[in-house]
């Protein structure tokens, strides 16, 4: 994960041509209701913004396959927004 000010960039292992669905969570990562979809991104990279510096953010990603079929969620990763 890359961090700078109120933006975080998530680099995934989906591959450069892959499409990923990204969610972020500033609460309890074990509570499904706390996860918010941040978008669907291409190219294995997602930039998320709108976070307050100093905030701890959990991020997870899943692949989006043909016809919108979704893969399983990755393990959440926690980062602190700088």
List the helices and strands and how they pair.
Blueprint: E1 2-4, E2 7-11, E3 19-25, E4 36-42, E5 45-49, E6 56-63, E7 77-80
Antiparallel strand pairs: 1-2, 2-5, 3-4, 3-6, 6-7
Question: Can you describe this structure?
Answer:
The protein has 82 residues and is an all-beta fold. The protein has one domain: Immunoglobulin-like (Sandwich), CATH 2.60.40.10. 0% of the residues lie in helices and 48% in strands. The chain has no helices and seven strands. The chain has strands at residues 2-4, 7-11, 19-25, 36-42, 45-49, 56-63, 77-80. Strands 4-3-6-7 form a four-stranded antiparallel sheet, with no helix packed on it.
Summary keywords:
single chain, 82 residues, mainly beta, Immunoglobulin-like, 4-stranded antiparallel sheet, 3-stranded antiparallel sheet, disordered N terminus
Based on the coordinates given, report the CATH architecture: Sandwich
Largest sheet: 4 strands, antiparallel
CATH H-level superfamily: Immunoglobulins
Shape estimate: globular
**DSSP strand count:** 7
Mean of residue pLDDT? 83
How many helical stretches?
A: 0
Q: What percentage of amino acids are in beta strands?
A: over 45%
- Which residues form runs of ≥5 with pLDDT under 50? 1-5
Structural class: mainly beta
CATH topology: Immunoglobulin-like
């Amino acid at each position: 994960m890359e961090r700078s000010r109120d933006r975080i960039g998530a680099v995934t292992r989906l591959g450069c041509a892959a499409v990923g669905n990204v969610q972020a969570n500033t609460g309890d990562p074990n509570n499904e209701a706390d996860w918010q979809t941040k978008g669907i991104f291409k190219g294995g990279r997602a930039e998320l913004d709108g976070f307050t510096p100093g905030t701890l953010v959990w991020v997870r990603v899943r692949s989006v396959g043909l016809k919108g079929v979704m893969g399983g969620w990755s393990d959440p990763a926690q980062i602190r927004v700088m």
